[in-house]
Automatic annotation (TrEMBL):
It catalyses: [protein]-peptidylproline (omega=180) = [protein]-peptidylproline (omega=0). SUPFAM superfamilies: FKBP-like. Pfam families: FKBP_C. The keyword Isomerase applies. The keyword Membrane does not apply. InterPro entries: PPIase_dom_sf, PPIase_FKBP_dom. GO terms for molecular function: peptidyl-prolyl cis-trans isomerase activity. It comes from Mucilaginibacter calamicampi. This is Peptidyl-prolyl cis-trans isomerase. It is an enzyme of class 5 (isomerase). The lineage of its organism: Bacteria, Pseudomonadati, Bacteroidota, Sphingobacteriia, Sphingobacteriales. Residues 71-156 form the PPIase FKBP-type domain. Keywords: Isomerase, Rotamase. Transmembrane segments: none annotated. PROSITE patterns: FKBP_PPIASE, PROKAR_LIPOPROTEIN.
Length: 156
């Protein structure tokens, strides 16, 4: 009986090891996201700057010379949408919203918001790796390229 149990465990272990698992390829996803952003910008005749991080941004209004750091808490209004179909998702605020610290937000915001000063407005075109990555987040599907229109009212 022990021999059969050992044989059964060996078979199960072997079959489990053969199971194919899909590994997420962040580099390949970044290339797909970049191509999607470039196509979107061209189609909509938008001139944007590409940051070394892969973030694209368009400064609508630069604002004052005072710019937030990762340790500041921004007061902002913002609207977020999916680049793929323009759906505005629940992550938006038309009245000023306060965040206790910029460093606690998604990477795209950490990189983009310090590019403008108080009173500034920026459009961020955020590849999935700088957003919610390959995880579903309520109304935002995995690997979504995001567009944020953000006005920095103030920060502390």
């Amino acid at each position: 009986m022990k021999r059969y149990l050992l044989f059964f465990c060996l078979i199960i272990t072997t079959l489990s090891a053969c199971k194919k698992t899909e590994k997420f390829d962040a580099e390949a996803q970044a290339k797909l996201d970049d191509a999607q952003i470039v196509a979107y910008l061209a189609k909509n005749n938008i001139t944007a700057v590409k940051d070394a991080s892969g973030l694209y941004y368009q400064i609508i209004t630069p604002g004052s010379s005072e710019k937030p750091t990762l340790n500041n808490g921004p007061y902002i209004t913002y609207k977020g949408s999916l680049m793929s179909n323009g759906t505005v998702f629940e992550d938006r605020s038309t009245s000023p919203q306060y965040f206790s610290v910029l460093d606690g937000l998604i990477e795209g915001w950490k990189i983009g918001l310090p590019k403008i000063g108080k009173g500034g407005r920026i459009m961020l075109f955020i590849p999935s790796g700088l957003g919610y990555k390959n995880q579903d987040n309520s109304s935002i599907p995995a690997n979504s390229v995001l567009i944020f229109d953000i006005t920095l009212i103030n920060f502390n």
